[in-house]
Design goal:
Layout lengths: L23 E2 L1 E6 L5 E6 L2 E6 L2 E7 L10 H9 L1 E6 L5 H6 L10 H4 L4 E2 L8 E2 L4 E13 L8 E13 L4 E2 L2 E2 L1 H4 L2 E3 L5 E3 L25
Antiparallel strand pairs: 1-13, 2-3, 2-6, 4-5, 5-10, 6-9, 7-8, 9-10, 11-12, 13-14
The structure holds flavin mononucleotide.
Length: 218
């Protein structure tokens, strides 16, 4: 089948687009509200976009049911900071609770009974249940096209200025994803989990990307 996205003439029960880009990692993003409390929400239009220096992106789409722009982007526009908390499989239900559209200064963190920890450099707190946190400062916000005048689509590019990794998930000098089992988003209401890891060696002579040390390839 083929459909033109402008016409949306796929003839399927649901829009298949998100099912074509899978699995998507989930950034459980914490930001600081204007009263100093913390906001928290999951975003799966998310990825790493550079390693040295490390950078991430996430995209915000549409609006909240009450008509406001989403709180995360509003907070980030105001103070330029956010934390990406990685979602372990064990936190899936709590993550889901934090997607509820609350009023700007209502706290998803309280609703989902999440414990928080201070960040080292930025003001938004980290979620204790996450084994990896990335402290980020906004690099740029790019407005994206929207089809409805009352909606907002935008992409936030962030510089990762600090990374916390729980020592318990580091084995033999490597992050042991078997201990985290990161949650991933598929299409519809479907999710996946990273629980089947295998290694593949690159052709002879290629550098191992994770072992590149500044200035020299190992
Ligand atoms: C797993 C998951 C992934 C999501 N990904 C996105 C996303 O990439 N972009 C987006 O705008 N909303 C996404 N949402 C919906 C937001 O989490 C939801 O609109 C939330 O209420 C926004 O909260 P905020 O206003 O506190 O930022 C996602 C929801 C879930 C459960």
């Amino acid at each position: 089948m083929f459909y033109e996205t402008k016409k949306n003439n796929h003839g399927l029960k649901y829009n298949p687009f998100k099912s074509c880009i899978v699995p998507r990692p989930i950034a459980w993003i914490t930001t600081t509200n204007d009263d100093g409390s913390y906001n928290c929400a999951p975003y799966s239009f998310f990825n790493g976009i550079a390693a040295d220096p490390p950078m991430v992106m996430y995209a915000t789409n549409g609006k909240q049911p009450m008509g406001n722009h989403k709180d995360s982007i509003s907070n980030i526009r105001r103070n330029g900071e956010f934390v990406v908390n990685v979602v372990p499989f064990d936190a899936k239900d709590k993550m889901n609770e934090t997607t509820a559209p609350l009023q700007p200064n209502e706290s998803e963190i309280e609703v989902a009974k999440l414990e928080i920890m201070e960040s080292k450099i930025v003001t938004p707190a980290r979620l204790k249940i996450s084994p990896i946190h990335m402290e980020c400062k906004v690099y740029k916000i790019i407005d994206l096209p929207t089809l409805k005048s009352n909606e907002y689509n935008g992409m936030v590019l962030g510089s990762v200025i600090g990374i916390h990794i729980n020592d318990e998930v580091i084995d033999d000098g490597k992050v042991n994803l078997d201990k985290i089992k990161p949650l991933a988003r598929l299409g519809y209401l479907d999710y996946s989990v990273v629980d089947n890891i295998f290694e593949m060696h690159r052709p002879e002579g290629s550098p191992r990307p994770d072992q590149v040390i500044k200035g020299k390839d190992k």
